[in-house]
Amino acid sequence: METETKRDYLLPASIIVGALLIAGSIIYLIGSSKNGGNGTGSSPSVVNDSLKKENSRDVVLGNIKAPVTVIEYGDYQCPYCARFFQTTEQSIRENYVKSDKVKMVFRNFQFLGAESELAGQAAECAKDQGNFWAYHDAIYQAELKDGQEHNGNLNKSLFVQIAKDIALDIDKFTSCYDSGKYADLIKEDTQNAASLGINSTPTTFVNGQQVSGAQPFEYSGTDPRVTPFKPIIENALKNSN
Question: Distance from the CA of 51 to the CA of which of 66, 146, 162, 211 falls in 20 to 30 A?
């Protein structure tokens, strides 16, 4: 199976059900600058079965048989999500996705307003053409260059340009986007995430273990608020054998 963004794979229900989604709060809170969560990445001791929900729109980056699943709930305007994408996620892809050890899934939690919702809709239209991950990456790259929220940069002009850049069928993409085909889906995704107790982004789960915020891939310091991904993934791989 290819692990690059050239191909997308719908995630089978058995894999989704096997990845336990644990509710929790993350550092970047909805509509507030308050500090939420303790940054430790700890998980509740009891997992509610109602949180193990499959999503037929999930798309896998990597080998669908990879033993570790990393699921991120993100918002395309969230600066911490962009930071996670630029740093930690790239290391996870390079060190684990390419070697078929980890598969990644992105889920919508587009809570920051209209621009976020429109970006989510555009990405769903790209998903219809089997090129979600390339589109997802391009949106975050645009946001990293822009560096601001709520300034109008996430708009149709950008979305169509990204579609052109990754060689989507522009007529199909534009028709999908203009129709608002996925407007309700994006709202439903966000509501579903909120119903799980998620109230901030990025919220990430590694085989069900919650990791709070845009944590680094590796860390050699002693700050208890820092929970690097590498040891969590390594432990998940060990436990999957």
Answer: 66
| CATH number of the domain enclosing 135 | 3.40.30.10
Q: Is the dihedral of CA 178, 184, 188, 191 positive or negative?
A: positive
pLDDT at 35 over 70: no
Please measure the distance between the N-terminal and C-terminal CA atoms of the chain and give it in whole angstroms. 21
User: Which structural domain range is residue 227 located in?
Assistant: 9-240
Residue 42 tokens read as: 């700890």
Instruction: Return the exposure string of 126-140: e unless at least 16 CB atoms fall within 10 Å of the residue's CB, then b.
Output: bbebebbbbbbbbbb
The answer to the question of residue 1 being in a domain is no
pLDDT tens profile 121-167: 999 999 999 999 999 999 999 999 987 889 999 999 999 999 999 99
Q: Taking a C-beta distance cutoff of 8 angstroms, is the pair 81, 74 a contact?
A: yes
Q: How far is residue 188's CA from residue 137's CA, in Å, rounded to a whole number?
A: 22
Global pTM value: 0.80
Residues contacting residue 121 through CB under 8 Å, at least 6 positions apart: 177, 180, 181, 182, 183, 185, 186
Q: Measuring CA to CA, how many Å separate 13 from each of 185, 231, 235?
A: 18, 27, 24
Q: Specify if 135 maps to a domain.
A: yes
Q: What are phi and psi of 200, to 5 degrees?
A: -165, 170
The rounded distance, in Å, linking the Cα atoms of 98 and 62 is: 7
Q: With contact defined as beta carbons under 8 Å apart, do 215 and 31 qualify?
A: no
Residue 177 lies in a domain: yes
Asked if the structure places residue 140 within a domain, the reply is yes
How many domains would you assign to the chain?
1
